[in-house]
Write a structure and sequence with these properties.
mainly alpha; two-stranded antiparallel sheet; disordered N terminus
Length: 479
Amino acid sequence: MKTENATPTDTVGGTGNGPPAPPDRNHDRARRAGRADLVTAAAGVLLVTAAVVVGHVIQSRDGSLRAQWPPLLASWDPHLGPGTPAALIMAVLVVAHGPTLAARLPWRGLLAAAWAGSTAWVFSMALIDGWHRGVAKRLTTKHEYLRVIDRFEDIPATLRDFTNHIVIGEPGNWPAHIAGHPPGATLTFVWLDRIGLGGGAWAAVFCVVVGSSGVLAALITVRVLAGERLARRAAPFLVLAPAAVWAGVSADGYFAAVAAWSVALLALAATRRVRFPAVAAVGGGLLFGWTCYLSYGLGLMAAVLLAVAVLARTARPVPLFLLGALVAPVAFTLAGFNWWTAYHLLVERYYQGAGGVRPYGYWVWANLACATLAAGLAAVAGLRRSAVAAPGAVRALRGGPPAASPEGRLALLVLAALAALLAADLSGMSKAETERIWQPFLLWLLPATALLPRRGVRWWLAASVIPALLINHLLWTGW
């Protein structure tokens, strides 16, 4: 496929709107936009630095942050592991050749390469901590889902009784992650166990392989809403996502993929870029309903879904999507699990533990430092370009000339995910651990990297991947 060497984002700071400017003016605008990108990335570095310095002061003073190496839930532990060579090789290969391959591979070949590359990247990062500590035992700790598999022998009875064990102090209260999520999360691993894939190793492989497929969902969505060119430009950044530090191995990566495929199916249905759009709409709804029973906070993904409908300028698939989205709530409710009751009990449980001690005044901004590390500095710079492109895109969608550019459409999709992330932040129910918990939102910030100019793209890739490698080698990122 023919690729372009110059794009609107290279010359006008990512807006892509308006008549062509003279070459000298284009060059000046590009230089100013490049400087603004660097300033924005520097602001991200300063935010992280402030969160580290202030966090260590607070933690040393009274321990209220409940994090040994704030703002990350981590501890100082310099180490190497069997994944170190693989992670370094992956980083070098994708930085050096990823942009070229992404531009030249056939589309289906790119999707296959992206899924394989993402899976390899996440596994290699996990293996830096070793097979047992980094992979096989990750989902078997005292807080994790696999610790309660035997309590789901009678699934209907357990669902009816689920809310009675959320609050600390009740007999047999659930471990932290089970209490903190609707039962769909735990049921996933119960069903894996029942088909013969029990234990931490199989659970880890499932989370990584399925979780990495979220990259495909993001690429497909960007392609149908903003064009293949931008999807290809985002691909290397999605493959080398810094969030791999926490996706390997975490159920949150799996949650992110389920939510992402819900968005992708709605986008395909709304743009009618699939043979059976009605089936895609229902499928997207089914996945969104299931998403809400994987994590209470993922109802906020509705902001991204709404952006898809707005960008496609149609409500045609919405009724079928909503029909599919009702299946999981109806099934769980009939089985005896009340989502709203469970959520209110979770809030009580949250404030019984670390959530009641951790200061909101620190975490409300330090969470954004965690997000900066997990999304990467390239995504931070891309968000600046998204903010620049968004006003023109909004005017175009409201019917004013000119038509919304691909860059503007991508910007609105990205900013919808940012809005969901900020809502989660302001809620106060995500104080710390957001580098892991917010992965479903962070995935949709990464396509903003497509708005960065092609010249210098490898430097931006390196700026995202090097901090991730340092974090994984210098810290133990347990949860």
